[in-house]
Amino acid sequence: MAAKKPNRVLGATELEAFGRELDDLRTRTVASLGQRDADYIRKVVRAVRYTGFAGRALLMVAAIGGAFVPWLLWPAAILGVIALAWSKIVENMEVGHNVIHGQYDWMRDPHLDGKTYEWDIVATSQHWRRTHNFQHHTWTNVRGMDDDIGYGLLRIFPEQKWKPFHLAQPLVAIVFAILFEWGVALQDVRLGRVFAGRMRKKQFVAKAAPVARKAARQMLKDYVLFPALAGPFFLTVLLGNVAANVIRNIWTYVVIFCGHFTADAETFPKESVRNETRGHWYLRQLRGSANIGGGRVMNFMTGNLSHQIEHHFYPDVPANRYAEMAVEVRRICEKYGQHYDTGSLPRQFGQVIWRIVRHAWPSRVRAQVPQAA
Fold it and tell me: What is the pTM of this model?
C-alpha cells in the first residue's frame, strides 16, 4: 500500500477559502432539497416496516411450521433472521441515525422529527443526541472531549494512556461489537465515574432510569412478546430475534469503527479547538474521519455512513445526498492538498483491527504535523 502523501500546511487565507468552499457546497445542496428526498426516506421507512414484518412472520413459520414440517425450519429461520436483521440495520442506520440528526426536520413530518424520533435499539435517542449529535460531532476526535474515542473501553490511538487492562482489548472489542447497542446505551450513564466514586447515587439513578426503561421495552418486545406468540415453540423466535440484533450490532460497530479509526485517522489535543475557525473545524473533521468504498449497496446498508467524511462535514444534510456531494468534497480536498481517506471495507476494517491489536500494548506517541500554519 502506497504511503499517505503528507497534508499540505494551509495558511490563514487558504484555510478560510477551504472552509468557504465547503460551506458553499452545503448551501447549494440544502437549497435543492425537495420531493425526491422526502420520497426517498418515506420509501425506506416502508421498506423497514415490510421487511421487519416479513422477518418476524418467517420466524413464526419456522417455529410453528417447522415443528410439523421439519424441512421448513432452517430455510424459514435463516430467511427470517436475514429479513429482520436487514430491517433493523436499515432502521438503525439509514432512518434512526439520520432522522435523529434532524436531516428531515424540514419536511415537518412528526414521524421524522429529529427531536422526538425513537429508534429500535436499547439506547435512548435523547442520550444519543447529547453524546453523538452534540459532543462527538462538535469535538470530533478531540481527546478528553469526544467520548467516542475508544468509547471508554479501547485504546485505539497512541495518545491514549495505556493501562494493563488494554492487554485484553482484542477480546473486549469482540464482545463490544456483539453488544454494541448496549455500549451506546450506557455511554452517557458514565459507569466509570460511578465505579470511581465520582458520581452520586442520585445522579446515577437519574441518568440510568431512561436507559433502563428503554432497554426493558426493547427486551420485552424482542425476547418476550414476539416469542410468546409462538407458544410452546417460542425458542426459535427468541433465538431468531437474538441473532438479528447481534448481526445489526456487529454491522453497526464495523461501519462506525471504519469511519473513525483507520490508520490515517488523527486525534487532537484540547488546545487545538481554541479560537477554532470554520476552516479549522472542517480540517479536523476531515483528518478524524474515513470513508468506505463499495457503491450504492454499501451506501444504503451503512445509512450512507460509508461517506463518514461528508457526514462529519454536514451531519444535518440528508445522507442520501452524500454520494453526490462527495465528488465535490474530494475535488476541494485535492485542490487544497488534503488527504481524503477512503478504501474498501476489508482494507479499512483491517486497519481498525491493526489499531486495536497494536495499541493493546504500550506505544509511543509520534509527532504529528500541525493542522495549519
Answer: 0.93
Q: Percentage of the chain with pLDDT > 70?
A: 94
Compute φ and ψ for 151, nearest 5 degrees. Answer: 55, 30
Total of domains in the chain: 1
d(CA 60, CA 79): 11
Q: Is there a domain that residue 364 lies in?
A: no
Mean pLDDT of the chain: 92
In a domain, residue 348? The reply is yes
Q: Is the pLDDT of residue 371 over 50?
A: no
Structural domain range at position 58:
12-358
Which has the closest alpha carbon to 99: 88, 87, 109?
Answer: 109
What nine digits make up the cell of 19?
Answer: 472552509
Q: Please, are residues 243 and 78 in contact by the beta-carbon 8 Å criterion?
A: no
Is 367 contained in some domain?
Answer: no
Please report whether residue 294 resides in a domain. yes
Give how far the C-alpha of residue 95 lies from the chain's centroid of Cα atoms, to the nearest Å. Answer: 12
Q: How far apart are CA 95 and CA 301, in angstroms?
A: 11
Distance CA 124, CA 102 (A): 16
pLDDT grade, residue 367 (50/70/90)?
very low
**Of 39, 52, 93, 99, whose CA–CA distance to 241 is shortest?**
52
d(CA 26, CA 325): 9
CA distance 126 to 144: 22
Contacts by residues 60-65 (CB-CB < 8 Å, ≥ 24 positions apart): 60/229, 60/230, 60/237, 62/236, 62/237, 62/240, 63/230, 63/233, 63/234, 63/235, 63/236, 63/237, 64/230, 64/231, 64/233
For residue 288, what is its C-alpha cell?
478524524
Instruction: Name residue, grid cell 430475534.
Output: 241
Q: Which of 144, 122, 147, 143 is nearest to 133 (CA)?
A: 147
Between CA 333 and CA 368 the distance in angstroms is 19
pLDDT of 192 reads 66
Q: Taking CA 252 as the corner, what is the angle to CA 194 and CA 255, rounded to the nearest 5 degrees?
A: 115
